[in-house]
Amino acid sequence: MTATAMDRSPAPLLAYDAKPDPISALLMLLGAAGAGLGLAFVFYALLVDGHAAFNTSSDMAWGSPIAFYLFFLLTSSGLSIVASLDTVFGLRVFHPVAKRCVWMSIVALVAGFSVLALEIGRPFRMLWALPVGMQFHSPMWWMGVFYSLDLALLCAKFWLMHTRRWHAPGTHGLSVLSFVISILAPGTLGLVFGMMAMRPAWYSPIMPMYFILTGFVGALAFVLFFTAVLPNQRRKPNEALFDVLLPRLFFVSLLAVIGMRFGQIVTTLWSNYEGMEAHWLSLDSALFKIEILVGLALPALLTATNGMRANRALVMLAGFAYLIGNFFGRLELLINGQKVPLFKGYWAGYVDYWPSLTEWMLVPAGIGIYLFLYGAGEWLLRLAEAEPRQGRTS
Amino acid sequence: MTRWGMVIDLEKCTGCQACTTACQMENARLPGEMWQDVLFYSEGEYPSGKLSWLPRPCMHCENPSCVAVCPTRATYKTEDGVVLIDWERCIGCKYCMIACPYGVRFYAEEKQKTQPDIRKVFPAKGDKVWDPPYKMPEHMQNPKWGVGIQPKNVVSKCTFCYHRVSQAPKGTVDLNPDDPKLRPYTPACVVTCAPSARYFGDLDNPSSEVRQLIATKRGTRLLDQTGNRPQVYYLAGEAPAIPETRSVRSGRKA
Ligand code: SF4
Ligand code: SF4
Prior knowledge:
Oligomer: heterodimer
CATH topology of chain A: Formate dehydrogenase/DMSO reductase fold
Bound molecules: iron/sulfur cluster
Shape of chain B: globular
Strand content of chain B: 15-25%
CATH class of chain B: Alpha Beta
CATH architecture of chain B: 2-Layer Sandwich
Distance between the termini of chain B: 55 Å
Shape of chain A: globular
Structural class of chain A: mainly alpha
Number of domains of chain B: 1
Largest sheet of chain A: none
Structural class of chain B: alpha+beta
Order of helices and strands of chain A: HHHHHHHHHHHHHHHH
Distance between the termini of chain A: 17 Å
Helix content of chain B: 10-25%
Strand order of the largest sheet of chain B: 8-1-9
């Protein structure tokens, strides 16, 4: 530890003595209720019916839990990237949200992993079968490697920030490594789908970039949403960031997502290739409409002008709308790749799928875990803390 | 080394589904869990409609995409060319079901299409999916090969009846069910096929019947563009196409 870091060390690890502010208390309460209800329901259903409590089938092998888990994992990587704007690229203006973003990123990973554990057939077997398997050909194996590293590095990074060693030797290196992994992890998740040539509706070299970008915008939406509820005195010192820069970055990145998605839609609808008709079929689905209208068009309209972007309520709503659309868009993507069954004959028809109640209960479970841990962090972990300026060596 | 493969003669196949039934019985599969299935295709309308069909086991691909995606190596290829699932290693991630172009893999933990739910009629003790009254003897079951009554939350598929085939005398070239000595080692679907539309043997041996048929009767692999290189070949005879190669999408209104 450097001398400068030691000079300002005596901060309690957990702010037990402080009472949680009303917002943190509310988040924790909502989180505990959601997680309690969701998890109790899902555990009970799994106990009684096993995974038959899900509406997934041999034809629709991956359903809403995977979509939900994508939502959390990709947003988590996005949050890590937002934090890196300061910690890796030195864009000091993002410094006030850096620590908060790292915590949000960790919490989103935990929520995502929890949903995955409830979806996967034998989650505990993963712990030994993945390292023993060493299947380098499998993007899913790499995903396991990168996300494990991601969690470890984020925790280490948060620990260093929390113990006020922003500039201890190795901190910058660790931040760079964590940033690289937060690109590789969602990128590999993109490959899990994008490499599948036998699933033409997914097959695309763009998928990793699409996942990284949509996760980044999701992260900005999370930050906008959760900082909008901060009490005024905490927002005040960083108004330029909260009211100008973040909303603007959100808008610009959203335009990039819209452009990318538009390109995807046009290409997939144009193609006659077997399996691509899933995209035609999805045009009529509620999921597609929510994704496009609620998730892309609405937030773009709500943040289209400087004046609108300065309106906290509008920006918060825009972030929320994007997250809703993003969630349903991920579900739509999941379904599109499996809608046209592989090799089942004419008589099989298209695969019908809509999540079961147990699957929907993963939503309060996952979000509950997220809210509870985020609220607890807000209360106990000094998330708004920034590095003292005089301590900077560069 | 032997590399087992199958040839299915579509000119002989009557689409009777006896192979499907034999497989279900041999391997104690659940209703709808068709390790072996016959797929049906209809084209056109009365009076010029046409019905065709295609028996479909696992293709036991030379380059199996299911093996490549399996993060735990639970799915693997044996030295004698058969693709198997180690049920004691599978984590039920279902990636293999996504990656198999031939749709031959199954996950038992789903809502049953037929009622009553047969798993509840014959419930199993412990970790097994069910306990049917008919099943192969205990000593023939092998979870490392994905053979027998399966545990919960793992993926399953056709094993080329590995519990039979792997016991064939060394050096066997053709597993011809007409030979009473070889019948116990021949896959159940091959044994049961009434018009003898199925042939099973060593693809690496130029004198095997399967090799001869592939060479002389234009043996065709399905979805060859995937690069999976199935070890199941089809003989279409004079037919203009194997039904699967016809597009299933309807004409779009201009
Ligand atoms: S047909 Fe499918 S399951 Fe069978 S070996 Fe090929 S890819 Fe694997
Ligand atoms: S479900 Fe099992 S066999 Fe299939 S890819 Fe996952 S671990 Fe491998």
